[in-house]
Amino acid sequence: MSGIVFVFPGQGSQYVGMGQELAGRYPEAAAVFQEAEAALGWPVDKLCFTGPAEELTRTENTQPAVLTVSIACFRVLAAHGVRPGAVAGHSLGEYSALVAAGSLTFSEAVKLVAKRAQLMATAVPAGQGGMVAVLGLEAEKVAALCRQVKEGIAEAANFNAPGQVVVAGDREGLAALSSLAKAAGAKRVVPLQVSGPFHSSLMAPAARELARVLEEVPVADPQVPLVTNVTAGYVYTAAQVKENLIKQVASPVRWEESMRRLLADGYRTFIEVGPGDVLSGLIKRIDRQATISQVENIQTLEKTLALLQEAK
């Protein structure tokens, strides 16, 4: 068993210029951008490499763009003979993990993610809902505070790491939750730059529509152990994959539990494959002894390859 886990980032990790270096040097990476354009009918590489930032941050664009860059990075690692012993992805990143595990083809995944993004963006009218990160309170405390909200909706949406829980809801619910959290001793309550209350019950219409879309999508059993957001456990069959993708849209991301499951199973090396280092920061907070690296450009690729060579 390879003791390496590939973890794939979600929305919020995007930046203008992502993927450009690797696509410029490695044909495997450039081919992924061509495949994305063929599937979607618009130039994903242009948006990723040159923006503009406001277009890249629109949910409908961000999700296929981050998936494309992540799989470009994954293909470059594969070309260097680096393969994962297990995979996981944060929210949108779970689709990248499914491609890496052989459960979805990239072409199907990028079309599916584009549709998912549209459904999520339109499930709640713009400006009616959002997300806040609550820093410095335990997960159980944040969940309890959400239950105390009487006006509006506030639900724990991402259990990211110790002392970092993201809450989703409508404007009234988030305002009430923010006040309660500050009164309970939260270090900070930070509004997130997202367009909707993702991973909450307000996304139920998107989940229902996604279920219909998934009926037409060929899904295979994962060929690599994959820990899923919804259960923080492994999925083994195509049917489980589909069920979890439907639930995931309106259910919390149990990231901390997912990482603890992999750590308990003996995985010690985590490579964040795709733009940014958000997941690396979360894993550090979960276990300071874990070995963590990233691959998003030539510098981080070379550093990761050197690290893996040393560990041999």
Features:
single chain; 312 residues; alpha/beta; Malonyl-Coenzyme A Acyl Carrier Protein, domain 2; Alpha-Beta Plaits; 2 domains; four-stranded parallel sheet; 50% helix; globular
What does this structure look like?
With 312 residues, the protein is of the alpha/beta class. It has 2 domains: 4-123 and 202-311, Malonyl-Coenzyme A Acyl Carrier Protein, domain 2, CATH 3.40.366.10; 129-194, Alpha-Beta Plaits, CATH 3.30.70. 50% of the residues lie in helices and 16% in strands. It contains 14 helices and 10 strands. It has helices spanning 20-25, 27-40, 44-50, 53-56, 59-79, 93-100, 106-123, 139-148, 171-183, 204-214, 238-248, 255-264, 278-286, 298-311; strands at 4-8, 86-89, 129-135, 154-161, 164-170, 188-191, 226-227, 234-235, 269-273, 291-295. The strands form 3 sheets. Strands 2-1-9-10 form a 4-stranded parallel beta sheet, sandwiched between helices. The protein has a 4-stranded antiparallel beta sheet with strand order 4-5-3-6. The protein has a two-stranded antiparallel sheet with strand order 7-8. β7 (226-227) and β8 (234-235) form a beta hairpin. The longest helix is centred in the first third of the chain and has 21 residues, at 59-79. Residues 7-312 form the Malonyl-CoA:ACP transacylase (MAT) domain. It catalyses: holo-[ACP] + malonyl-CoA = malonyl-[ACP] + CoA. One of its GO terms (biological process) is fatty acid biosynthetic process. This is Malonyl CoA-acyl carrier protein transacylase. Its EC number is 2.3.1.39.
